[in-house]
Amino acid sequence: MNSASNDTASIDWDALRAVANEANTHAYVPYSKFPVGAAAITADGRVISGANVENASYGLTLCAECALVSSLHMTGGGRLVAFTCVDGHGNIVMPCGRCRQLLYEHSAPGMLLETVSGIKTIDEVIPDAFGPRQLAEFEASAD
Ligand code: THU
After folding, report:
1. Residue 64 C-alpha to ligand 1 middle, in angstroms?
2. Tens digit of pLDDT for each residue in 29-48?
3. Domains of the chain
4. Which end of the chain is less congested by CB atoms within 10 angstroms, N or C?
């Protein structure tokens, strides 16, 4: 397996977006009719993807990022270095707030995202994020 760098120039965003567009065709969206496909590259070079899956109990909807993170773990785990997400017209979708947190948990330092306003780092889309470090620091300071 090749290792992937999250250097902006080394990511083939067109190819990654093509994977997201293919994932989009697997969305289950009878309620919103808004299919989303997400794709990412892992630190060890795997390309993973996911699509949104809705539910009659609307609040139980699984965003495309949920499926992508599940796929991450089902295929060996690791960290994400690059991510993109598209709607049914191929337009870039910003991950919702919950999914920014979800992606942050599994991000490599400096993870890149293709956004509606260009390539950004995970720290730019979820600044001062709460994460595993805060839990570890609290545990370390407890006595
Ligand atoms: N959706 C995602 O899959 N990811 C996001 O980051 C934004 C929203 C889905 C959830 C729902 O199925 C549809 O888009 C409309 O909100």
Report:
1. 7
2. 999 999 999 999 999 999 99
3. 8-141 (3.40.140.10)
4. C
